[in-house]
Amino acid sequence: MSAAEATRRYGDSSDSSSTASGSVIGASVTRFDGSAKIRGAATYALEHHPANVAHAVLVPSTIAAGRVRSIGTAMAETAPGVLKVLTPDNAPTLKAASDWLGNPPARPDYQPLTAEIAYAGQYIALVIAETFEQATQAAHLLDIVYEEAETVSGLRDVAQGGGFLAEPMTREWGDAQAAFASAPVQIEHEYEMPREFQMPIEPNGLIAEWQGDKLTIWEPCQWLDGMARTYSEWFGIPFENVRIISPYIGGGFGSKAFCGVHDAIGAMAAKMLGRPVKLALTRPQIFSSIGGRAATRQTIAIGATEEGKLLSIVHSGASETSINETWVEPLGVVTALMYATPNLSSHQRVVRVNTVMPGAKRAPGENPSAFGIESAIDELAYEIGMDPLEIRLRNYAEEDPHTRKPWSTRQLREAFAAGAEAFGWSRRKPEPRSMRDGHHLIGWGVAAGTYPVRRAAGEARVLLLADGTVEVSSSTIDMGQGAYTVIAQTAAEVFGLPLDKVAVKLGDSTLPRAGVTGGSRMAGVMTSAVHKTAVALREQLVELALTDPASPFRALQANTLTVADGRISSPLADGPVISIGSFLAAIGKTEIDATRDTFAEIGIDPKDSYKNYTTIAMAPPPTAGDFSLHSWCAHFIEVRVDEDFGTVRVSRVVSAFDSGRLYNSRLAASQIKGGIIMGIGQALLEEGLVDGRHARLMNANLADYLIPTNADIPDIEVISVGIPDPHASALGGKGVGELGIVGVAPAIANAVFHATGKRIRDLPITLDKLI
Ligand code: MCN
Ligand code: MOS
Fold first, then answer.
1. Which residues are CB-contacts of 21 (< 8 A; sequence separation ≥ 6)?
2. How far apart are alpha carbons 205 and 228 in whole angstroms?
3. In angstroms, how far is the first alpha carbon of the chain from the final one?
4. Which atom of ligand 2 is nearest to the CA of 198?
5. In whole angstroms, how far apart are CA 65 and each of 62, 115, 691?
6. Is pLDDT at 184 greater than 70 in this prediction?
């Protein structure tokens, strides 16, 4: 990668990016990486072409349980261009790596290619050839003999109470069962969600290149440190020997945060061949081998007074995981957080089925959890004839109902008020089926959402150059959410520089370290780290100006100087005003720099940070200190349901959200809109359909698994009601990235009920369920 490619600056856009003074942080600034992306100058991992690269194609199992009895490779091996065929018979064994939380592996070894099959789509062979076409052709020439065994295809194959209890998910206070049994109003229903997939446009995949025991990986990657660690453990090489390069990522949504099986196979192949290997997953392979959101079901029982005051919530849920690996999609997190209730009991079971291990999809946990509780509370409102917004305000939690800690900030009441006002909620007719436009039934629904404020370690280097420009670098990444932009804004503000004087380098694991870009934590972590580093560098600059023998400010005997608009000035009216660049030249320096991290803020020793995934990834939890820290939102949604055909269109969305202070109002709004769009897909379209006989995904492609297109999306109005939250981050911002999706699906289900009088408790809401 050339230096020019590695250093990213604003393009020549004359947009709002050149504000020299005033607050740059929070401003509505267009994407830093936008110009490069539009011009095609942003190169993605798999567009890289190392010399002598070989192309690999993975072969997935067509059975979901049993074993591969044999794989005949003779024809494939002699096909044109084929360099090697890897199967369970000849693939080497790697060392097992710790899991993403840093837990040591249960077994010492790891065989990414094995004959024992736990899910359809599990990789059983790799064909490597001179060209992609040759590898694809040869992959069809394998002679595979299977022994198929009985499968468990999904939650519906398993009786209620099956699986095992996920104990850390248990929440319990008061006597929820007794309080429910004696409550004057009782409702109890089951809510279901299917498997869903992240589906970023850029496929998962990698290019691996070995030089001796040094490994370079080009790969879209949400967590360079974490994935580099996994590669180093698999191959028994020092962490420092792994370099991952990931400057641009075409969407991740949780699917690119951890290494996958294909990574182990790809890097292994490159090592065996002694050549760089390129391996991209096909779209069906992304469906079957990158775990999406687990299918879930949950039962919620609410006991309340006739006036709608909650007395008890009894919640039990179940989520899918794979046969041999455990992923828990938390189902009770919002249930135990959103409303004040004197009694609550929440339990979750996890059920092993023949699927790839599920993973993180935008707001894992909060998203399905909100579908349950935000549907149930709505059902209660109709049961007692109360406005669905009123019932939410009546049970407003003034403190965290579980930890009993005060909220750091919770502008949810303000979000309800602002959203209702902009939406015109007061004009809503309460009765289902009471609003219509021709043969369209119109429904208005509301639901709340929340996402915790998570933190992690982050480290930044800030460099001040003689030309008066600033360069910020970190191994954090930008997958479209806006990291380049908010980092540039933060540095620009500290030096009073226009944004085009700031360069940002991200996405290279040799740069200063950073935790995972997951859990909507990175903007808070990185703006904190960059702000701290830039302020330290500004102080260093002032100190030099006051003390360096060659400094024009030295004679002033001042004890402070001002750095603004890219210039250093003295507080005296007639004192010198010198540009940063001229000053550096005057004292004979070409650059000065500082590096700082947020390790101390989250209580970890930087020396341990590679070893301890848990602290880097998860510390501290949002309720660790004196406060309970979360972002909040309220969605108001209008649907139009065709009375004859049962088709549902979302026709209007107003969402008000509290993410504390915003670093960039435009990008924050676009994050919330992106989440809402994904939520519309979840409510109306997305469903991984599993064949109950063979546990195979039947719609593993983007023609049959539907995600929203522009035509599905109405105008979305987004309103920020946040106030700076000093407990959340240095600049007062809370998370944005996942918040917007939480609560959308129940708001739509609630609107559909209002329109039709039909309560749909299993997503997606398709027309067959309405006619
Ligand atoms: N932001 C802001 N003010 C705040 C917080 C955030 O202006 N107080 C804006 C910034 O533009 C910032 C962005 O929101 O870059 C997201 O910040 P944050 O909430 O900290 O989330 P992360 O940077 O950690 O991004 C990860 C998050 C997650 S976990 C998923 S999943 C997701 C998401 O971001 N995947 C995305 N948003 C995505 N957006 C795009 N385009 N592509 C994805 O794959
Ligand atoms: Mo986001 S699902 O935490 O990457």
1. 496, 564, 565
2. 15
3. 57
4. 2
5. 9, 10, 13
6. yes
Ligand minimally distant from the alpha carbon of residue 729? 1
How far is residue 492's CA from residue 564's CA, in Å, rounded to a whole number? 10
* Rounded distance between C-alpha atoms, residue 576 and residue 570, angstroms: 6
pLDDT at 30 over 70: yes
The helix (run of H) or strand (run of E) holding residue 462 is strand 459-465
| Pairing between β-strand 648-658 and β-strand 630-642 as defined by DSSP bridges | antiparallel
What distances in angstroms separate CA 9 from CA 31, 304, 468, 568, one per listed residue?
11, 57, 14, 23
Residue carrying the six token digits 């979000």 = 415
**What stretch of H or E contains 271?**
helix 261-273
The residue that leads in pLDDT, 565 or 593, is 593
Backbone angles phi, psi at 447, to 5 degrees: -160, 155
Measured distance CA(157)–CA(449) in Å, rounded: 31
Share of the chain above pLDDT 90, in %: 87
Using CA atoms, how far apart are residues 257 and 674, in angstroms rounded to an integer? 19
- Which tens digits make up the pLDDT trace of 210-257? 999 999 999 999 999 899 999 999 999 999 999 999 999 999 999 999
Alpha-carbon distance 593 to 230, whole Å? 31
* Amino acid, res. 275: R
363 Cα nearest atom in ligand 2: 2
Q: What Rg do the C-alpha atoms of the chain give, in angstroms?
A: 27
Cα gap 514→226, rounded to integer Å: 9
pLDDT at 601 over 90: no
Residue ranges of E strands in 15-110: 54-60, 66-72, 82-86, 94-95, 109-110
Q: Whose CA is nearest to atom 6 of ligand 1?
A: 736
According to DSSP, residue 177 is labeled: H
Pairing of strands 716-720, 648-658: parallel
- Cβ-in-10-Å burial (0-12, 13-18, 19+) of 112 comes to buried
State the sign of the Cα–Cα–Cα–Cα dihedral 527, 532, 533, 538: positive
Q: Sheet containing 577-579: which strands, arranged edge to edge?
A: 562-564, 567-569, 577-579
Backbone angles phi and psi of 763, in degrees to 5:
-85, 155
Residue 445 is predicted with a pLDDT of 98
Ligand 2 atom index nearest CA of 222: 4
pLDDT digits (tens, 9 = 90+) for 460-510: 999 999 888 999 999 999 999 999 999 999 999 999 999 999 999 999 999
Which residues in 475-529 belong to E strands, given as ranges? 502-505
Give burial (CB, 10 Å; 0-12/13-18/19+) of 469.
Answer: buried
| Residue showing tokens 């009123």 | 390
Task: Find the 59 Cα to ligand 2 centroid distance in Å.
Answer: 28
Q: Cite the active site residues.
A: 738
Identify the sign of the CA torsion 467, 470, 474, 479. Answer: negative
Mean pLDDT across the chain: 93
SS3 436: strand
The answer to whether residues 211 and 50 touch, using CB atoms and an 8 Å cutoff, is no
Judged by its nearest atom, the ligand closest to the C-alpha of residue 455 is 1
Residue 616 is which amino acid? I
Among 579, 561, 559, CA closest to 570: 561
Q: Do residues 522 and 458 make contact, with C-beta atoms less than 8 angstroms apart?
A: yes
- Of 179, 651, 177, 191, nearest to 378 by C-alpha is 191
Residue to substitute in 477, 479, 738, 741 for testing ligand 2 pocket (most ligand atoms within 8 angstroms of CB): 738
Distance from Cα 632 to the centre of ligand 1, integer Å: 15
Nearest to 192 by CA among 154, 163, 153: 154
The whole model's pTM is what?
0.96
Question: Could you tell me the two tokens for 664?
Answer: 């960039």
